[in-house]
Write a structure and sequence with these properties.
alpha/beta; 5-stranded mixed beta sheet; two-stranded antiparallel ribbon; Transposase_31; Transposase (putative) YhgA-like domain-containing protein; double-stranded DNA endonuclease activity
């Protein structure tokens, strides 16, 4: 999936005033309806600032202006799939650019407040520092003299989906939590809109599923079916990679029989790598015995494990399939 396509999916969902307002109410006001969607307006976030000395260009993922008629606030949402230590300096730059552009275009002494949020949707916890000063190497008595800049990171997996009033927002947060927890039972009973399904596929690194979802005739998507599609695509990618590696091995050998065996071996090794990764996602660290048994499996047995991955809860389940 192209970056442009990914951005389009994210902006379509989070750029909807109803979704955006509901998120703000949960993040800032514990779910109370303080921000009304009718007061939110898309804000041109293709920002370019140039003076005689330098030029900066920046585009936030989603930017809205909250305009009550009495005051205005710019709110930026930046989606992140991985911990990124540069976010403190980047958000500082983005916010400063917003204020600099206000100086440039409004020529007044008062600013609109700028609020930036980092929406973390990756697996595991955010590990990067959230304070610019924490990244500075200097004695504490000197660091106190400098200006700090702190960022607000929101881990979407830790939000209480019950606080959301918008049905699609609830589906999104609940679905994201179930997927990263590998809660297959929960996914079996979950049906979401196509819009939510596309965002979930994007947030969990399964962008290939977006085109499949878009071709669906129904407006609702079964999450369990989507999960199985993700496994199938992973298996196909593993086969393709294995075949390519096998052909490469055979070509280097320059022997027809070696090429044939290389293709077969490479394909099997690609599938083994995929199955080991899937099992580690479900079970965590694998024992040497399980790794060895998987490496001894033929293609048929690897396919059996792949198709039953959602039924595996411990290593004993794996061993039963291998019997």
């Amino acid at each position: 999936m192209s970056v442009l396509k990914k951005d389009h999916v994210m902006r379509d969902f989070f750029g909807h005033p109803g979704h955006f307002a509901d998120f703000l109410n949960v993040l800032f006001f514990d779910g109370q309806k303080v921000v009304d969607a009718s007061y939110l307006f898309p804000y041109q976030n293709d920002k370019t600032y140039a003076d005689y000395h330098f030029s900066i260009e920046k585009r936030n993922d989603i930017t809205m202006k909250w305009d009550t008629g009495f005051w205005q606030i710019l709110i930026n949402m930046e989606a992140q799939s991985q911990s990124d230590y540069t976010m403190t300096s980047r958000i500082l730059l983005y916010d400063a650019l917003n204020y600099a552009l206000q100086d440039k275009h409004q020529k007044g002494c008062r600013f609109m407040l700028v609020i930036s949020l980092v929406l973390y949707h990756g697996e595991g916890k955010w590990k990067a520092l959230t304070s610019l000063m924490d990244r500075i190497e200097a004695p504490e008595y000197l660091k106190r003299l400098g200006n700090d800049w702190k960022i607000r990171v929101v881990d979407l997996k830790e939000l209480d989906y019950r606080l959301f009033r918008n049905q699609e927002n609830r589906q999104l947060i609940k679905g994201l939590q179930l997927i990263w927890k590998k809660n297959v039972a929960g996914l079996q009973n979950m049906v979401v809109t196509k819009g939510v399904a596309k965002v979930l596929a994007t947030l969990t690194g399964q962008e290939e599923l977006v085109e499949i979802i878009e071709k669906e005739g129904e407006e609702k998507v079964e999450m369990y079916s989507l999960w199985k599609d993700a496994i199938h695509i992973g298996m196909e990618d593993g086969r393709k990679k294995g075949k390519e590696e096998g052909i490469k091995t055979g070509r280097e050998a320059g022997i027809k029989e070696g090429m044939k065996e290389g293709i077969k071996t490479g394909r099997r090794e690609g599938q083994q790598m995929l199955i080991l990764n899937l099992l580690q996602n479900v079970l965590g660290q694998l024992t040497p015995e399980i790794k060895k048994r998987i490496q001894q499996c033929d293609e048929h047995m690897l396919q059996v494990i792949g198709m039953h991955i959602h039924q595996i809860h411990n290593e004993q389940d794996v061993l039963k399939l291998l019997m």
